[in-house]
Amino acid sequence: MIDSPAKLKSHAENLSKNSKPATTILVSLGTCGIAAGTRPINDMLKAEIASRKADIEIVEVGCMGLCHSEPTIEVVNNASGKSVIYGKVKADQVAAIIETASKGIEAASCTVINRSWFYPEENETATPERIQARIVLKNTGKINPEILDHYLAEKGYQALSKVLFDMTPQQVIDTVIESGLRGRGGGGFPTGKKWAFAAAQKADQKYVLCNADEGDPGAFMDRAVLEGDPHSVLEAMAITGYAIGSDTGIIYIRAEYPLAVKRLEIAIDQAKKQGLLGKNILGSKFSFDIMIKYGAGAFVCGEETALIHSVEGKRGEPTVKPPFPAIEGLWKKPTVVNNVETFANVCAIIRNGAPWFKKIGTPGSPGTKVFALAGKVKKVGLVEVPMGTTLRQIIFNVGGGIMNDRKFKAVQTGGPSGGCIKFDQLDTEIDYESLKRLGSMMGSGGMIVMDEDDCMVNVAKFFLEFTLDESCGKCTPCRIGNKRLYEMLHRICDGRGTRETIQNLKDLSNSIKDTALCGLGQTSPNPVLSTLAQFEHEYLAHIDEKRCEAGVCKKLLKYEINNSCVGCTLCARNCPANCISGSVKQKHSIDQSRCIKCGVCMDVCKFHAVDRK
Amino acid sequence: MSCPINSKAELAKLSPEKAEELDVYLTSLPLTDDRERNRGFLIQSLHKAQEIFTYLPSVVQVHVANRLGLHLAEVYGVISFYSYFTDKPVGRYKINICTGTACFVKGADKLVEEFQRYLGIKLGETGTDGKFSLTGLRCVGACSMAPVVMVNDRVYGNVTTKMVPEIISDCK
């Protein structure tokens, strides 16, 4: 039981003094790592260490953000502090890694990854190779999320101790307001102000709600934080509770994240046992308890009023604001709803002060943002950069450029509510405002890179299909308007669109934007409007020339066999529609009336004799 | 308010063990006479019920409604709203193809077509032998391995159409 700030401090000091083995190996065991086969590598490392009786400890950590190179491990030499990160570790490399680790040198013939991030909290600064700044992801990939002492050794729960014993609730709110921290779930509302509204309410009960319903397809930063550093979120929720005068926290998490749920449960249990959550935290008068509530697969539940209804056990339909949740939220009591990533910033701000936080990022959007870089980019993974970093730096520097060296076409940010950004806008320094000016938005931080093989009309159609699926159906503009938008896009993809369709798309999109009830509906036409603004020529090619540049829209495709055909019959044998005819060693031909445009003939042909037009 | 039939007896006809397991869970909840507060436990109760019964047939819905003091319509309203819940039986192997954005740009639509062709069922359907059901889901957060297919709890990454027969034959 840690029942005083002094005990917490001395415990942390003892942990750092404890003698460590010569070498520590960090093994990345997040969802991606496990799926990529890190578990067997982990077992082999352990067996190798045991058989050699080497002075090496294994620490199972969360996501290091290097999803492109899983299985990933980091070998840290505790005497010198030097570390080597190995990516794509294979079974036959394990022995060499252990052998060299004891000697403090790099293993030959292994993929070594240079660290591309720095830790602002450890007084490191950016270098050309290290443009990522880790505040939110400081501990993920460094500590074992299932061991409380690991978190305590990284100054864990000291921010909570500081607010409970050295600060008034008002001072906590003032610090967060001064830091300029804005909601990382996408809206960008100043976090401190939200807290101030809730604190000003007089009520017998208030709630702190953590939004972990990461429903934006292509975003996985909240999952990484919860899997890799759950205590940082719990600590920040308790700090929020102290600031607004609440004794109950609830984490609303999607059921699709079983590992994150498990690690949260373990963390809550540990914190309660040590007196860091529950009654009279650290011997103070403040009590705070946290429970977990599960989502059940509804994107709209990321909207705060819908989320509150879901926690109450209702259909997750949003309601009109005001009243804002900070005034009238869960069970009609004042409620602060913050996103996982927002909470993950709070402890660092309290520990280091608002001026420290403001030094990172831009004046209007201080701090960092975590992006989930995915799609057609070489190095897929989690990226945490200071606000104000350019898209080019993220995609081409951190992300290593486009896969298979294809041409970059667009990057999509903000998920189904966001938009696409073109090549000539890549040097924009990103923050909440600049992305909005480009017709996109920050969103929760999904960043999907697309290349020349992606059709932008089809991409817009994809997002509309998603919105249709996820619309709760409460308001007409969203329920029916989006359906009509989808049908229009479908017509264009099928080659049945006209110039008038484009005008109708624009008009209806603007009407939906103005009249839908909640954030989901109001932003649902964004993918249409932004692709229309940036890639209108692609829409026109579909309409006027009946041509899909990227070769995606099937109805507009035509496969033909050219004179390179040697008559090997491979295409005819593989054609699922049996519509290719021709005798051996004679040029074949495709019966266009029966062709289903699957592209198998082109895939199997060894002589480049099939053209797609 | 509650449905007049003896829902526990009806449920026991389905499977006495499963009925008992669900009842033990519902009894462990701190339920009160306050309907609104009880409603807060509805979604987790349905998660538990679906975990036990694999789907939520009407007798299960009636029983949960009775125990929580809610209307059946309210329970059904929640089930129909959330995509995680289903009131239709599912196959022993739930093949979930991720159709999130990252998987979409990496060709998840081709996988959907191939699975539909291979299994002879459409997305959202269960085969007549009850072995497979095919569903699409939005993002499991494993975007680095897109396109991703989940079969029950197993995750397959970087899936190509050629891997489809292999994945099906893993289901024994």
Structural class of chain A comes to alpha/beta
Shape of chain B: elongated
Shape of chain A: globular
Which CATH class of the largest domain in chain B? Alpha Beta
Tell me what you see in this structure.
Chain A has 613 residues and is an alpha/beta fold. Chain A folds into five domains: 19-115, Glutaredoxin (3-Layer(aba) Sandwich); 148-356, Rossmann fold (3-Layer(aba) Sandwich); 368-451, Ubiquitin-like (UB roll) (Roll); 456-544, NADH-ubiquinone oxidoreductase 51kDa subunit, iron-sulphur binding domain (de novo design (two linked rop proteins)), CATH 1.20.1440.230; 558-612, Alpha-Beta Plaits. Helix content of chain A is 39%, strand content 15%. Chain A is built from 24 helices and 20 strands. Chain A has a five-stranded mixed beta sheet, with helices on one face. In chain A, helix 7 packs across helix 10 (230-244). Chain A is globular. The model of chain A has no long low-confidence stretch (mean pLDDT 93). With 172 residues, chain B is of the alpha+beta class. Chain B folds into two domains: 7-81, no CATH class; 93-169, Glutaredoxin (3-Layer(aba) Sandwich). Chain B has helices at 7-14, 16-28, 35-39, 42-53, 58-68, 72-81, 101-105, 108-119, 164-169; strands at residues 93-98, 132-137, 149-151, 154-156. Chain B has a four-stranded mixed beta sheet, with helices on one face. The model of chain B has no long low-confidence stretch (mean pLDDT 90). At the A-B interface, helix 2, strand 12, strand 16 and helix 17 of A face helix 3, helix 4, helix 6 and helix 7 of B.
